[in-house]
Amino acid sequence: MFAVIKTGGKQYKVAENDVINIEKLEAEDGASITFDEVLMVGDKVGTPTVSGASVSATVESTFKDRKVIVFKKQRRQNHRRKKGHRQTLTRVRITAISG
Q1: Is the pLDDT of residue 30 over 90?
Q2: How many whole angstroms separate alpha carbon 90 and alpha carbon 95?
Q3: Within 13 Å of residue 98, how many CA atoms lie on the same side as its CB?
Q4: What assembly does the database describe for this protein (predicted)?
């Protein structure tokens, strides 16, 4: 069985024992969390969410993703800007899907 959850402005298709990287959550390592915004469970599609459905997960770690270089240039103007960005992510393991 799979589910589609929404967190951090993105949607993820998950199944039990999946490990996914999502936007940073304010939770400590080893804490269990519940996602209540479930858009789809199996073949049941919500409008916009499935009522009574939830997905449980365990936080494994919080880490920084690889660096993304943002480079802007205006030609013939001697104008260059280079910045780097590292997004903070949380790795979670899906433990149960109910609904």
Answers
A1: yes
A2: 15
A3: 9
A4: Part of the 50S ribosomal subunit. Contacts protein L20.
